[in-house]
Amino acid sequence: MDINVTLSPEKRAQILVGAAAVFAADGYEGASMARIASVAGVSKGTLYNYFDSKAALFTAYVGEKCDQFLAQTFDIANHDDDPAEVLRGIGTRMVRMMLSDVGLAIYRVVIAEAAKFPELARGFFEAGPARAIGFMAEWLAEETRQGRLAVPDPVFAAEQFFNLCQTRLVLRRKLEMLPDPPDSDIDTVIQASITMFLRSYRAESPV
Fold first, then answer.
1. For residues 98-122, b (16+ Cβ closer than 10 Å) or e, as one string?
2. Of 61, 135, 163, 165, which residue has the fewest beta carbons closer than 10 angstroms?
């Protein structure tokens, strides 16, 4: 990177939009920096001023999308509402993100390239799923301290809840075995997941 270049947040965002389109269409290995620059509407030199490698660009793209998702999902993780309602909000937003065009595109690129580029898969996991599990675990631990839930292993329980919420819909959608499911189907899965989860983890005498 040229240290004398003034970097523009708007230009960076423009590059990330172009990169998203190319990664979704060509995969990670098939994407070239030249094509990303062309689709983004910038010169190749400008692209390298912002991102010194394709791996850095992909990591930044995934990280930005994960940041947006986590902010939207966990801004409702308070300790005032009933745990079931908080779980409903978290589960519903998580599933909708996973079923979104962006969520599906990132997942498919990472899975397709994981064996050849394990650092990309690791970066995706750390930027998205691992952070989501961490946020959820913190919420569960505080709910346990306050006596509403009884969760002996918050990290395990967080991952357990996220996997419950993916029942029936998410894997089939990733494999193109289903069209986009209606909200009613998502609501049914989330409600069943909450019921099962709270049977195991709701405190016997909640305060």
1. bbeeebbbbebbbeebbeebeebee
2. 163
